[in-house]
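Troubleshooting log. The previous structure file for this entry was overwritten by mistake, so regenerating from the original sequence record. Sequence copied from the archived sheet and checked twice against the printout by T.R.
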Amino acid sequence: MLSPGSVRLLTTVGSPPGIASLRGLGMDIDSPYAERPRGTLFPLGSYGHTGFTGCILWIDPGSRTFYVFLSNRVYPDDRSNVLPLYTQLGTLSAQAAGMGAASPRTSGGR
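Regenerated output below.
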């Protein structure tokens, strides 16, 4: 959907020197915001975006995998917390792509 040049801009570190959080133009590359949606299996090099309402777009170019989670944690009030679900979704998505020991492809799942 995006040109290689656009993807390169989105995934090139744009954080100032000395800042530990690596972020591109709207994409988390390796920041505290990237830890949960990456799950326990997607490697560094995967990247994505999380939004205030709890939406996620996460992409792993190595496995040619992505997942999208659409949510609205602020409806009907702002007391919902989807953060624990982020890690589960990232891990399950990576397993569905064949990463990790318990992937559906190796455990007889569908």
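The radius of gyration is 15 Å. Archived copy saved in two places this time.
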